[in-house]
Design a protein that fits this description.
Elements: H1 2-15, E1 53-56, E2 61-64, H2 69-76, H3 81-98, H4 102-108, H5 113-125, H6 129-142, H7 151-164, H8 168-175, H9 184-196, H10 200-209, H11 215-227, H12 231-244, H13 248-257, H14 261-272, H15 278-301, H16 312-316, H17 325-345, H18 348-424, H19 426-429
Antiparallel strand pairs: 1-2
Length: about 425
């Protein structure tokens, strides 16, 4: 008994890879159909069938070895009679898996190890993390000595499941075993857990321990600083993110964390130029309009004269909804550019006259758009009325046609009744009566 325990201990030490080093995938080909050394113990579940699968221990996956007809014939020649039966058995179950008959597979073959691994991956792909945790318990019991998947691979999967299932403390308990491994992914996962627990300073601590931050790590770090109200550091990370991906979202992050309105306005315009999404354009236009109006109001308030300041929102709110987003952007930019130009070019009464002209121009523009809208609306009403009249005429024609057919049928029936009366009279019908 002591000898057997020693052998088991040595086998576990030899075949458990480190999380950081990356486990190697076990690939079983048609030419080499023996089970790998690490799974030679026949006490593991469905040992005889593992030879027909490719086992990727690094990604915690297992896949049936797909062979075409010729390859399968060649492969069969290398198998014994019992091994052929095992192959057919595994292939039959795999065919059920391939067509998605999971209910049937789990009912008929609840402990078939390759099916459990594939069902586990199916649950993960569909974000069914509670079910994946339940299946993971069966997987761990089946491979309790970690001969198929290393302990580190299993722990990594468990930690990810707990994070996805928001069981952060359980994930931390696993991840702490690898805290001194200098593995960036471990630190990133620890940070995700502490972020989920709203411990943002601890999350920042672990993210700063990562040596090569991925894009997702920087996104999480940005969120930590935002939640901590640390806009200075949030802006620094926003710069890093925009350098990695120059897009609407990251430019808006820069806009949000900028310390002055001039920078906010610059990033807002840049963000608008990166998107074609109508909702995003409407949102950023509101930011731009508010900032431009604030700048215009500040400039006018510094003047030593009374001027009726132009107000874009006054005009925009009167425009009908039919004005396109593109046209609205164009007119908004035109409004603020013109106002800015007038402030530079004029002063005194000339500036007053210029602003009056600007207000009048946009009053006329609003009226023009309203007229176009009402004309379009009137035309639509006329078209609808014409269609209603045409429909009414059609209905009347159908009623007339229906009445004509009814009259025709009625006349046919009268004639048929007259003929029957003629032939039923013996004085008329019987030639021998006379």
């Amino acid at each position: 008994m002591k000898k057997l325990c020693s052998i088991l201990f040595l086998s576990l030490v030899l075949f458990l890879p480190d999380w950081g080093s990356g486990a190697q995938a076990i690939v079983i080909t048609a030419q080499n159909n023996t089970v790998p050394t690490s799974v030679q113990n026949k006490n593991i579940p469905y040992y005889n069938y593992l030879r027909f699968y490719n086992i990727d221990s690094q990604n915690f996956k297992i896949a049936f070895k797909q062979l075409n007809e010729e390859e399968e014939k060649d492969f069969f020649r290398t198998l014994t009679k019992d091994e052929k039966k095992d192959y057919k058995y595994a292939k039959k179950i795999q065919q059920m898996i391939d067509r998605g008959a999971w209910g049937e597979v789990l009912y008929k073959y609840p402990d078939f190890y390759p099916a459990l691994i594939q069902y586990y991956q199916n649950c993960k792909d569909r974000n069914l993390y509670e079910e994946a945790l339940r299946i993971m318990d069966k997987i761990r019991m089946g491979d309790r000595y970690n001969q198929i998947f290393s302990k580190d691979s299993v722990n990594h999967e468990l930690a990810q499941l707990y994070i996805q299932n928001k069981q952060y403390m359980k994930a931390i308990d696993i991840l702490k075993q690898y805290e001194n491994s200098y593995n960036d992914r471990v630190y990133a996962d620890m940070a995700s857990c502490y972020f989920g627990l709203q411990n943002y300073q601890k999350a920042i601590y672990y993210l700063n321990k990562t040596r090569n931050k991925q894009y997702s790590d920087n996104e999480l770090l940005y969120s930590c600083y935002i939640e901590s109200k640390d806009m200075t550091n949030a802006h620094k990370i926003a710069v890093v993110l925009s350098n990695q991906k120059y897009n609407f979202e990251n430019l808006m992050r820069l806009q949000t964390t900028s310390s002055n309105d001039a920078e906010k306005l610059k990033y807002a315009y840049q963000a608008r130029n990166t998107t074609n999404d109508t909702a995003e354009i409407i949102m950023i236009n509101k930011f731009i309009a508010d900032l431009e109006q604030k700048k215009l109001d500040n400039q006018i308030s510094a003047l030593h004269q009374f001027i009726k300041k132009p107000n874009w929102e006054f005009f925009r709110s009167q425009l009908p909804e039919t004005v396109s987003t593109a046209e609205l952007c164009q007119k908004q930019d035109e409004f603020f550019r013109t106002a800015e130009r007038y402030l530079v070019m004029y002063n005194g009464q000339q500036l007053t006259n210029a602003f009056n002209s600007l207000n009048q121009d946009f009053t006329n523009y609003v009226q023009q758009k309203k007229n176009e809208y009402y004309q379009t609306l009137q035309l639509q009403m006329q078209q609808a009325q014409l269609q209603a009249q045409q429909q009414q005429q059609y209905i009347q024609q159908q009623l007339i046609e229906q009445q004509r057919m009814e009259n025709y049928i009625r006349m046919q029936r009268v004639m048929e009744m007259g003929n029957r009366a003629y032939y039923s009279n013996p004085l008329i019908y019987d030639p021998y009566f006379w």
